[in-house]
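User: Fold this; tokens only.

Assistant: Input:
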Amino acid sequence: MQLVAEGSDPVQSYARTILLSNNLISYSEPIILPDETKSVYAGKQHKTTKFSNSGILKIFPNPSSQYLIIEYNQDGTEKTSEKITLTINALDGKTIEELILLKSKDQMLIDCSYLKPGTYLCKLTNGRRIIGTGKFTVVR
């Protein structure tokens, strides 16, 4: 434990890995999100997210233990005035979460630390029409 707390960078990593593999400690990788509360110069905005045209719904990392990134892109499908909805269901059909999406393409971070380990289904609908499906696994 002293090496984890006070060692140099590679030594800390090796010591933590040994302790984790022997179930002597638990460790959750920190998730660092941008702080959007700070004032920033409102200059020219650069688009950093690149969407691929192949696929309407992408889920990663899969399997996951703490969070998921869900990327959706409805641009290649027939557009209607209906609302776009993302639904997460357990394998038994129980709805876990239902989100109304405001954009036709975007990425979203989903906290899955509260979900039980197992497989879940993700469905993207436009009104009553299913436009994309996916599956992900939660592990601990």
